[in-house]
Amino acid sequence: MSQVLDLSQIRRGRGRVYFNRGELGQLLGLYFDRVAAGEWRDYAIDHGVGIAVFSVFRHSHDRPLYGIAKTVGPQGTEYGVYEGRHRLRRGHVLAEVLALFERKLTLVRD
Known about the structure:
Elements (H helix, E strand, L loop, with lengths): L6 H8 L6 H16 L5 E7 L2 E7 L8 E8 L2 E8 L2 E6 L2 H5 L12
């Protein structure tokens, strides 16, 4: 026998994922630093069932340079940094994932 499933009940169980105030503060802080340096120009935030993505752009009409994703699943909350389809870093703490964007200082000699 076939069984009819109510997909709205299944989707409602997973729920939409959003960035909280602290996460947005970290993301926008990084974004503003890169805007001041002239590297990034625009951003977008997308929310969906099981995932939220903060995308940054060099130009408003281009593809995103990076996407910082927050996913919620059976293992808990996980963050990831993506360049296109390539995952550059992932972790369970947003600050650890954003450390990818920290500038490395180099010694300049004459």
